[in-house]
TrEMBL record, chain A:
<dbReference type="InterPro" id="IPR003593">
    <property type="entry name" value="AAA+_ATPase"/>
</dbReference>
<keyword id="KW-0547">Nucleotide-binding</keyword>
<dbReference type="InterPro" id="IPR003439">
    <property type="entry name" value="ABC_transporter-like_ATP-bd"/>
</dbReference>
<dbReference type="GO" id="GO:0005524">
    <property type="term" value="F:ATP binding"/>
</dbReference>
<keyword id="KW-0067">ATP-binding</keyword>
<dbReference type="InterPro" id="IPR027417">
    <property type="entry name" value="P-loop_NTPase"/>
</dbReference>
<dbReference type="InterPro" id="IPR017871">
    <property type="entry name" value="ABC_transporter-like_CS"/>
</dbReference>
<protein>
    <submittedName>
        <fullName>ABC transporter, ATP-binding protein</fullName>
    </submittedName>
</protein>
<comment type="similarity">
    <text>Belongs to the ABC transporter superfamily.</text>
</comment>
From TrEMBL, chain B:
<feature type="transmembrane region" description="Helical">
    <location>
        <begin position="106"/>
        <end position="131"/>
    </location>
</feature>
<keyword id="KW-1133">Transmembrane helix</keyword>
<feature type="transmembrane region" description="Helical">
    <location>
        <begin position="12"/>
        <end position="31"/>
    </location>
</feature>
<feature type="transmembrane region" description="Helical">
    <location>
        <begin position="226"/>
        <end position="247"/>
    </location>
</feature>
<feature type="transmembrane region" description="Helical">
    <location>
        <begin position="151"/>
        <end position="168"/>
    </location>
</feature>
<keyword id="KW-0812">Transmembrane</keyword>
<keyword id="KW-0472">Membrane</keyword>
<protein>
    <submittedName>
        <fullName>Permease</fullName>
    </submittedName>
</protein>
<dbReference type="Pfam" id="PF12730">
    <property type="entry name" value="ABC2_membrane_4"/>
</dbReference>
């Protein structure tokens, strides 16, 4: 199973009584951009810290590149670049020196520093002290640090935090282009729109549990648009349609259908109109991923 | 290991470690300069009273208390500065997610701490020699005594230094380790004053001069080798404990 980059089995982290991550089974394959989605405090960062060996899992196994993290920590970390939460920066050093620290530590070639500086467009600011950097610049420096070693797996925890719209756009394009060089990316975010625009796979975590994990298309598929019909008498309309063998999830004011193809819509319409009811609205309701996300998380919350 | 040391070296750039390195030697030497010039008569009288073998020995005796108090404080602050570079940068999570062994990360910090203190002691040693020359001490420079006094202090404070580094690395708020360091230093002074408790390792820095005042006057400190042997072992033990704890702990 060469292509399984990240596999976790029943990954659990407990802090005294509080369970931060519970029974997580994460799967990331080569070349994927995996969007790790969840509200604040869902356990995203805890999971990422466990993947990087910063904290020990209470239970469960982590395998990266097909090897157990516990036994092969150093050789695995060799192939990972990471940015966890707020970026690390040594304020007393310039941007270039910050990268130089990491370059020395990992004995990487010197020209790599210039390369990553230009990737994140910090070349001009490279000689300024990082304590004078804006949050967005610090964030970009963090990404540059993560890219410095040309990792096979890039783990970015909320990489667009604090960036302005053009910065977000830039980072997004940058991340999208990474799999071309065989890199796999794990990006966490609490913003679905963010993940929607760059990820190929999605994992949704809520209260420490994985409540959805599949491709982004599957997530969209799972919640196809609905047909909303406004009709003068909902009860009667329901009864008529029932007679024709069409079930509906009717509410007080509107009828709801989970099919929206044109033929079906006109059929419904003609049935109702011919029965003497007046139809005043036929509407296709597209649910945004936000709605889907809220639905997924609230369903879990009500358990 | 070399890579980590070189990376850590760069992190110290433009930090305030240099101030700490210079602080104690300059303070003590300035005090002694004033003491030996403005109070020259008194110093001469006292040196005679204590049967000091030379003015050098009197100088060593005179600064031993200040040095014994000041140096542990310098070690406390230096440990705090070195550890705080990572705390302030939010650097632990990045550093430990690199393919480097945690024990080497810890040892590198310890080596740089020891190096800074070593530099501080060397400045002190050179400063004492220059001071003696400037004040035209008659006797030749007792290099062994002076060097023993300076570098012996490094070993005498080794357990303390190792403990302070561990505290500063573990606790993010540096006010706490600094407070503990200050309290321990003062405690050393009191412990050293009592016959029973002066064998407690915390009291060694105060007593680790190569010369001490005995009944018959200023003489060589025969207890010093024992102090150094005990604290060298204790220091290494505490360093190892620090490393083991650091390797195992979760990084939030």
């Amino acid at each position: 199973m060469d292509d399984q980059i990240v596999v976790t089995n029943d990954l659990t982290k407990k802090y005294k009584k509080h369970t931060s991550v519970e029974g997580l089974n994460l799967r990331i394959e080569r070349g994927q951009i995996y969007g790790f989605l969840g509200p604040n405090g869902a356990g995203k960062t805890t999971t990422i810290r466990m993947l990087l060996g910063l904290i020990q899992p209470t239970k469960g196994r982590i395998e990266l590149f097909g090897k157990s993290l516990k036994e092969n920590r150093l050789s695995i970390l060799e192939r990972i670049g990471s940015l966890v939460e707020s970026p690390t920066y040594y304020g007393n050093l310039t941007g270039r020196e910050n990268l130089e620290v990491v370059r020395r530590l990992r004995s990487l070639p010197e020209q790599r520093v210039d390369e990553v500086l230009s990737i994140v467009r910090l070349t001009k600011a490279a000689h300024r002290l990082t304590k004078e950097y804006s949050l967005g610049m610090k964030q970009r420096l963090g990404i540059a640090t993560a890219l410095l070693s040309r990792p096979d797996l890039l783990i970015l925890d909320e990489p667009t935090n604090g960036l302005d719209p053009s910065g977000i756009q830039e980072i997004r394009e940058l991340i999208k282009g990474l799999p071309q060089s065989g890199m796999s990316v794990l990006v966490s975010s609490h913003l679905l729109s963010e993940i929607d625009q760059m990820a190929t796979q999605v994992g949704v975590i809520h209260n420490g549990k994985m409540i959805f994990q599949d491709s982004i298309e599957q997530l969209r598929q799972r919640h196809k648009p609905l047909l909303k019909v406004g009709v003068s008498d909902v009860m009667e309309a329901k009864a008529i349609l029932q007679g024709k063998g069409i079930t509906t999830g009717g509410e007080k004011e509107f009828l709801w259908f989970d099919r929206t193809e044109p033929a079906f819509v006109s059929e419904i319409n003609s049935i109702l109109v011919q029965s003497g009811l007046s139809v005043y609205r036929l509407e296709e309701v597209k649910r945004s991923l936000e709605d889907i996300f809220l639905e997924l998380t609230s369903a879990e919350g009500s358990l | 290991m070399k890579e980590i040391l070189r990376a850590d070296q760069l992190k110290l750039k433009r930090s305030s470690i240099l101030i700490i390195v210079l602080l104690i030697p300059i303070l003590i030497l300035t005090y002694e300069l004033v003491n030996f010039t403005y109070r020259a008569e008194l110093v001469d009288k006292q040196a005679e009273l204590f049967h000091a073998g030379s003015m050098w020995m009197y100088l060593l005796y005179d600064n031993s208390l200040l040095f014994g108090l000041g140096f542990p404080l310098a070690a406390t602050l230096a440990a705090s500065i070195i550890a705080n570079i990572e705390h302030q940068a939010d650097g632990w999570k990045q550093l430990l997610a690199f393919p480097v062994s945690r024990s080497k990360v810890y040892l590198s910090k310890f080596i740089w701490l020891t190096m800074s203190l070593l530099i501080s002691l060397t400045i002190f040693l050179i400063g004492m020699i220059l001071l003696g020359k400037a004040l035209e001490f008659e006797e030749s420079v007792p290099l062994g005594l002076l060097a023993g006094d300076s570098y012996g202090m490094l070993i005498a404070t080794l357990p303390f230094t190792a403990f302070q580094l561990w505290l500063s690395m573990t606790i993010k708020n540096q006010a706490f380790p600094i407070l503990i360091g200050a309290i321990c230093t003062i405690m050393g002074l009191f412990l050293a004053a009592v016959q029973m408790t002066r064998w407690f390792p915390l009291a060694y820095p105060i007593q680790s001069s190569t010369v001490i005042l005995q009944y018959e006057g200023i003489g060589y400190n025969t207890d010093l080798p024992v102090y150094l042997a005990i604290n060298l072992m204790l220091g290494i033990a505490l360093l190892c404990m620090g490393v083991i704890h650091f390797v195992k702990r979760d990084n939030q």
